[in-house]
Amino acid sequence: MNTAHKGRILVTGGAGYIGSHTVVALLEAGYEPLLLDNFANSSPSVLERLHTLTGQSITCLEADCTQTDAVLERLRPLHVAIPFAGIIHFAAYKAVGESMARPLEYYHNNLGAMTSVLRWMEELGISLLVFSSSCTVYGQPEALPVSESAPMQPASSPYGHTKQMCEQMIGDFVRANPSCAAVLLRYFNPIGAHPSALLGELPLGRPNNLVPYLTQAAAGWIPPLTVFGTDYPTPDGTAVRDYIHVCDLARGHVQALDYLAHKPGICQAINLGASEGVSVRQLIDTFTAATGAPVPHQTGPRRAGDVAQVYADTTLATQLLGWQPQFSLADALRHAWAWQQQLPETSRP
Ligand code: NAD
Ligand code: WQD
């Protein structure tokens, strides 16, 4: 681990899937992360695993981001003692289907937390922000690979709306506070786990996303995977996405912070993906080739709301951040499988 001190970073949602991997990357780069999480979709046990992995003590404020003023008063003395150089804002609800069924919870949590983060920046004089956005802001793009300048299509879910609205809120905030700067990281499909198998993705209940469903089905925990749609206008008829290893994504946040340090007034959207379109069938085949484990699966109709294909143009991430993925799809699937295999039976949905 790098022992240089590059500044303290507030990491909202730092106990979650992407947040926890980013905490490791921050420590490796010499930043001091301070986590803030209400464990709505994570477990405090991740803090012990972070300690085991990094050898560092991990501080986490258990708090709800939507409680703007109460959290501000807890952050103030911490900021006076050691100022926060920036905020990485992960905390949000993220299940697309759930957001259709319970839109108000999504608007309240995701927009409420965003408002709080911007208020804390204003009140405490914190100038740098890295925000977790999503390729969902593009909808079904007209041209592929999709670049940051592609026009946003209407979002297909309340979750997607919250990401578009948060991006607008941050843009307005930076325009009004030109000493601040923000990067909006538009993730494509984050997958995989830390190579140590100490960190990974464990959705509550039965997974909705492809890779956690696939690994749990391969482990025999849940019924066979259904491939949603075989009649898409893609080479093998199944839908195409851009899968990016979560550790590569995590490193992108550190590089975004480094980039922002000397860029007051900018609010820059940047794609993070592997720049490669992979079909559901290709992903299943790559998993079996990489791990030797068969994937019990069947085919079914398209899932409502799914786009046929989306993958990233990541030229900007390379040009501005010097970022490039280091792990392959096979690495990511091997790591996801290693993570699945060490999960205790009690994690079974
Ligand atoms: P996650 O659910 O694992 O992590 C989110 C964390 O935020 C959890 O630990 C949760 O407990 C916490 N949280 C939620 N609401 C909170 C609140 N009000 N106060 C404090 N903590 C709160 O999700 P993730 O996959 O790590 O995603 C992180 C971010 O990245 C989210 O903003 C998500 O929308 C975005 N994103 C995720 C994906 C993906 O596929 N995983 C893709 C694109 C964007
Ligand atoms: C991937 C592919 C499915 C499950 C979602 C959000 C997006 C972003 C990432 C947050 C699709 C197919 C899936 C299954 C399947 N999240 N599939 N059987 O839908 O691309 O993106 O997560 O911002 O906003 O929408 O990801 O993993 O659900 O699906 O065939 O059981 O796998 O149809 O083609 P998606 P996913």
Short description:
The chain is built from eleven helices and 13 strands. It is α/β, with parallel strands linked by helices. It has a seven-stranded parallel beta sheet with strand order 3-2-1-4-5-6-11, sandwiched between helices.
Give a written overview of the molecule.
The protein is α/β, with parallel strands linked by helices and 349 residues long. The protein has a single domain, classed as Rossmann fold. Helices cover 40% and strands 17% of the residues. The protein has eleven helices and 13 strands. The strands form four sheets. It has a seven-stranded parallel beta sheet, sandwiched between helices. Helix 1 (17-29) packs parallel to helix 2. It is globular, with a radius of gyration of 19 Å. Bound molecules: nicotinamide-adenine-dinucleotide and UDP-4-deoxy-4-formamido-beta-L-arabinopyranose. UDP-4-deoxy-4-formamido-beta-L-arabinopyranose (WQD) is lined by residues 94, 96, 134, 136, 189, 208-210, 213, 225-228, 239, 241, 280, 303, 306.
How many runs of DSSP E, i.e. beta strands?
13
Give the N-terminus to C-terminus distance in angstroms.
36 Å
The CATH superfamily appears as NAD(P)-binding Rossmann-like Domain
User: Counting H and I runs of at least 4 residues, what is the number of helices?
Assistant: 11
Order of helices and strands: EHEHEHEHHEHEEHEEEHEEHEHH
The hetero molecules present are: nicotinamide-adenine-dinucleotide, UDP-4-deoxy-4-formamido-beta-L-arabinopyranose
- Averaged pLDDT, please? 96
Considering DSSP H and I runs of 4 or more, what fraction of the residues is helical? 40-55%
CATH architecture: 3-Layer(aba) Sandwich
- Write down the Rg: 19 Å
Strand order of the largest sheet: 3-2-1-4-5-6-11
Residue runs with pLDDT of under 50 for 5 or more positions: none
User: How much strand content do the residues show?
Assistant: 15-25%
Fill in the CATH topology.
Rossmann fold
| Class by alpha and beta content | alpha/beta
CATH class call: Alpha Beta
Biggest sheet: strands, sense, closure? 7 strands, parallel
